[in-house]
Amino acid sequence: MIHTYSGETISFEIKYKKRTSTGIYIDVYGNVEVHAPKGTPDESVLQLLEDKWDLIQQKSKEKKDRLLGPQEKVYEHGESFLYLGNTYPIQIHQDINITQDYVVFEGEKLHIYVKQLEDEKIKQALKRYYYQQCKALVEKSIQSYKSNFKVKPRSIRISDSKTTWGTCDSKLQLTFNWRLAMAPLKVIDYVVVHEMCHMIHLNHDRSFWRLVGKIMPDYKEQENWLAISSWKMTV
């Protein structure tokens, strides 16, 4: 079926089942399904769709975009990048007098100052900014949560890992992925808490997860954000 609302059109399928309530489901391809009790009037289904319209559009687009995978970035005015969980456009400035390329977040934009207008220079300046921000944010988060632990990390390092968001070794050395600067602050806090809990429990046994849950009861929400958004965390 097709329904138009607020100037937008959505395709959906209704499946009538033995159930007592109506629910909306979006599959991995972004297709919308309505599961409704047998005999549910079409008007009730359409009303539910309209009530949830913005959320349906958002979730459907997210799943369709995810199927496409990371899109190749262009380093031009207006291209967008994630920072602290939100997407912002970049504004590129050439300044031949600077000694090092740098980035400033201001006015809802990532301003990139470079000596040479080259894609690689712009990319490296942005990446260096994420490294710097990640280190500062991680250190601040560790300070916020240190009262929950009787031990403290011996060192903190920022890495370019392709497989992990953070690690803790037996020497209490913590390492974090620079891409975390693209995540919301609460997600950064979760990764920090996760690795700090490894200072007590080096594996992922029940005691470890109990400690994580005690310090951050909503940690599963942060895990979920990483699970569905990590593919977008790229430069």
Short description:
The chain is built from 6 helices and 11 strands. The protein has helices spanning 42-51, 53-68, 119-145, 185-197, 206-215, 219-229; strands at residues 2-5, 8-17, 23-26, 32-37, 80-83, 86-94, 102-106, 109-114, 155-159, 166-168, 173-177. Helix 3 packs across helix 4.
Describe this structure in words.
This protein is of the alpha/beta class and 235 residues long. The chain has six helices and eleven strands. Strands 1-2-4-3 form a four-stranded mixed beta sheet, covered by helices on one side. It has a four-stranded mixed beta sheet with strand order 5-6-8-7, covered by helices on one side. Helix 3 crosses helix 4 (185-197). The mean pLDDT is 92.
Main-sheet strand order equals: 1-2-4-3
- The residue ranges in which pLDDT falls below 50 over 5 or more consecutive positions are none
Helix segment tally: 6
Strand segment tally: 11
How far is the N terminus from the C terminus?
Answer: 39 Å
Query: How would a crystallographer describe the biggest sheet?
Result: 4 strands, mixed
Order of helices and strands, N to C? Answer: EEEEHHEEEEHEEEHHH
Helicity, in percent?
A: 25-40%
Secondary structure category: alpha/beta
The average pLDDT value, as a whole number, equals 92
In one word, what is the shape?
flat
Rg result = 22 Å
Percentage of residues in strands: 25-35%
Task: Give the helix/strand layout.
Blueprint: E1 2-5, E2 8-17, E3 23-26, E4 32-37, H1 42-51, H2 53-68, E5 80-83, E6 86-94, E7 102-106, E8 109-114, H3 119-145, E9 155-159, E10 166-168, E11 173-177, H4 185-197, H5 206-215, H6 219-229
Parallel strand pairs: 2-4, 6-8, 9-11
Antiparallel strand pairs: 1-2, 3-4, 5-6, 7-8, 10-11
Helix pairs in contact: 3-4
